[in-house]
Queue: 2 jobs
Job 1
Amino acid sequence: MRTLIKDGHLIDPANKKNGKFDLLINKGKIEAVEPKGKLKDIADSKIIDAQGAIVTPGFCDMHVHFREPGHEYKETIQTGSESAAAGGFTTVAVMPNTSPVNDNRSVTDFILTQAKETSNINILPIGAITKGLKGEALSDMGELKEAGCIGYSDDGRPVSDSEIMRRALEYSKMFDLPCIQHSEVLALTEGGSMNEGVVSTELGLKGMPTEAEDIMVHRDISLLPKTGGRLHVAHISSGGSVDLVRQAKKKGLPVTCEVAPHHFTLTHEACRGYNTNAKMSPPLRTDSDLELIQEGMRDGTIDIIATDHAPHDLVDKQVEFSKACFGIVGLETALPLTLKMVDKKIISLEKAIDMLTFQPNRIFGLDKGTLGVGKTADITLFDDKEEYSINPSNFKSRSKNSPYEGWKVRGKILHTLVNGKTVFLSLIHI
């Protein structure tokens, strides 16, 4: 049976479409995209009324933690997938800091098997750069690619050894996959809980200086000319790092970067009251850093938006701030938080959609993120005008660790399709 999505406002940056279009889906593929009213109702077709909705390619998040294997009490591939679909995401890349670490074919195979059996979206594994995330010896990067990994990262921990990172970048060139770096000099952040600044001083907490990020970003960029590898800077948080990436791009170096919504909407002020839901790594920075990140989004230095979805159980967060786990859930709040940047005229709505759809797929070499004829029908529909208050208790994620409870936002996911099949449908409008 065919599916006709009609009367919606389509935004497809890759194909430069922004207006009233109807889409016809057949056997999981886009069969036709035509101006509103040109596609007549097809006999025996299912009709999706998109009146008042924005229709886009399915969102793509290249940085999530689904905790399986090893920490299923926080999240599983199934619950993480349900959370992703509810947030409009049809494709996600899962980081390797599981237990065991995804540093070999057997773990990659397990993730892909679990995804096939329990997930309703596209799950893409990221392989570890080093064995056990210890930073001491490279993993078998070739084997990981053959098994299905689309990139390499030790996320959660940086690759501190410069020689090992240099070799990793050389292999990344050979395999044409990016190295994704958690940029942090551990000697400068050891024992830290939040950004080093006036707030950390007032709270009596050890801080994590921006220099820890800036130095590592500078080192990794410096390795690119000779290695030719592809560097992707994860969850950029420092204004200084944004400028380093900007200058590297001007030189034509193969570097890209991502920003998480919490780093363009929150500052270290959110940690007051010892709010552990605002504890994350890299930490929330200053007003100045936030402004420079927003400028990086505006001028294109920052390529994509990625949530760094990091679920934690209550027992991980309801402890002293210094002992609490880093991270927040982010998949189900990404759209409304991104729309705040549209409201502030930092980026246009079309640019926001581009950063959530086509650009992540382009960077990772995936044939997704567009609504062109013949492409896979991964599609998101949302109401950009519906206003509501964020309520973490309603999240599909197994964990509810969010600093955004009670925030007034706009932008409601209505319908998410993967391969032309509905994986999320909003039945209740708040």
Job 2
Amino acid sequence: MTGYLVVASFLCLFLLGFPVVLALGIPCLVYLMANGLPADMVAQRMLYSLDSFPLIAVPVFLFVGSLMNCTGISNYIYRFADTAVGRMPGGLAQVNIFGSLVFSGISGSALADIGGLGRIEIDAMKSKGFHTPFACAVTCSSAIIGPIFPPSIPLIIYGTVTGASVLQLLLGGILPGLLCTAMLMLMAAWLAYRRGYPRAPRWPTMAEFWRDMWPAMPALAAPVILTVGMLVGFFTPTEIASVTVAYTLLIGWLYYKQLTWKGLIDASFETIRATSGLLLIVSIASLFGWILSVEMIPQQITQGLMSISTNPYVLLMIVNVMLLVVGMFLDSTTAILVIAPIIAKPLVAAGVDPVHLGMVVVFNLMIGLVTPPMGLSLYLVADIAKVKMKDVLREMLPFYVPLVFTLMLITYVPWFTTSVPQYFVGNP
């Protein structure tokens, strides 16, 4: 009973507007004081949660996203995307989505995608006559690709807290990322056709294609190098993060020649600020999870779910509904840290592939980024474009269809997630 009081206290404090750290930390502190647990054990538990090799990749990828914003790589990616797919129905809307796919192969973050490409994409679409809230909606929905296509910060965090193979999780995101891209591009094409939005007057000549592809080549090569490196065993997921930093620094200094010492220092401090907050949440969430384990909450939830059904697809549907609701109120990192360790055991026990489950969980929570009231991506694009949130949300409504459809395919066709890691690595 005490464990459920801790959970209820966290939810109440969070809904009252307390910061996540305090909403998690206060119930934990009260529990520890009530049970007379020594402070040194608590500190040891929190520090132990940070002693994780895969977790090192998270701040490093955050650093990559900051570096890309100050090296001008985003501009070259966008220019090439415009040349490659600007003639498709929807024009710059398709460029927006395709550009997010390319950018995600380097940054691994939805908010980094919006921060890096969002302003460029929205301004370009506005100048061509696109409705500004529509441009914001396309930017929001396409940013979801980043956290599921490798490298992915949420998948790394999920693997760290559940014990699932981070390498297989990252490989498992390749086909879902491409699937999500295709679904969003189809919806953008349909909406653009109905509304008469412009597109490029013609397809590029081969000379024009190579002209814009060549400057973007180092950026385009990054996802390929990283993915191949993982497949052949040259890099672990954590090492990939460091290789990406070195690669970004190299092309920023030597190829693009736009990386300055000031930009490097600014990117470093931005990463430090983001990392300190994230790791504090990770340590507190670990303590929260430990308390739930002591109170046997995961075991009780396992028994409860198994009493409803032992069919893995029924359990996945229950988890989908639960996570869609959770994603509306919790940011993805907190939700993964708190929820994932609880639901992973019963579903894996029911026969759900741990890599498949990881993709379902992460994609669900990424939809939460574009779903109010939390909806961090919605707030970010609304701030960038200086438009009202309700206008962005109205334009987002059609894009929920391809996102939910993709979620259903990922959930009930495990092949999309498991085929690539099984082919290259084997069963988990």
